[in-house]
Amino acid sequence: MNKNETHCLLCTQPLQLITSWKALLTKQFPPSICEKCLARFERNTSHESTSLYRYNEAMKDFLHQYKFLQDVALAKVFRQELHTHLKHEKATIIPIPMHPEKQKERTFSHMDELLKSAKIPYIQLLEKTTTETQSSKNREERLQTPPLFRLLPDIRVEYKEYLLFDDIQTTGTTLQHATQLLLGAGAENVRIFTLISG
């Protein structure tokens, strides 16, 4: 075992690795962070929400280290939660893509890595058309934003249900643009699921 498998990925303290029959029979992932670090993340308990966690300081630190410091190992932190919530999903899952330039800069697609780590199948249908972020815009600027996505070349959207997956929903503009594109291209229905609500 390497250090990442025996120590918390966030605080580097040794993990309490206790193998139980339940963990073996339910095919749970081994822990990647300690209980103390896990407790810092605030669960989203709203029944109307489609997000697992709320945005707080711990989540801000996680996103910074994962996305901007390019710590791809942190894709494992929420893999059990994502696997539990998405393993029986009937809709086709589509992660919100990064602009190709941003992906080169970051060296990996953080959305894809979250799903891969959780062993959740997905497909790519969309391509981001701009490197701008929506969080830096005011409400009026967001409403006037040109389309953020286009379909990948030679893609045909089937008449079925799709589930858009993003790391964080703040303004909702990004997910709204992707939803409108898919519905306009022939999707029967589009739902949204995010790791965090901002």
Characterization of this structure:
- 25% of the residues are buried.
- It is globular, with a radius of gyration of 18 Å.
- It has one domain (32-197): Rossmann fold (3-Layer(aba) Sandwich).
- The protein has helices at 3-6, 21-25, 35-39, 57-68, 79-86, 100-106, 110-117, 139-143, 173-184, and strands at residues 51-54, 92-95, 126-128, 149-151, 161-169, 189-197.
- The chain is of the alpha/beta class and 198 residues long.
- Helices cover 33% and strands 16% of the residues.
- It has a 4-stranded parallel sheet.
Could you list some keywords that capture this structure?
alpha/beta; 4-stranded parallel beta sheet; 9 helices; 6 strands; 33% helix; globular
Please give a quick description of this structure.
This is Competence protein ComFC. This protein is of the alpha/beta class and 198 residues long. Helix content is 33%, strand content 16%.
> Overall pLDDT, averaged?
88
Instruction: Please report the distance between the alpha carbons of the first and last residues.
Output: 36 Å
Number of strands: 6
Oligomer: single chain
> What is the count of distinct domains?
1
Using the coordinates above, name the CATH class. Answer: Alpha Beta
> What would the principal axes of the Cα set say about the shape?
globular
Q: Give the strand content.
A: 15-25%
**What is the element string, with H for helices and E for strands?**
HHHEHHEHHEHEEHE
Largest sheet: 4 strands, parallel
Number of helices: 9
Secondary-structure content class: alpha/beta
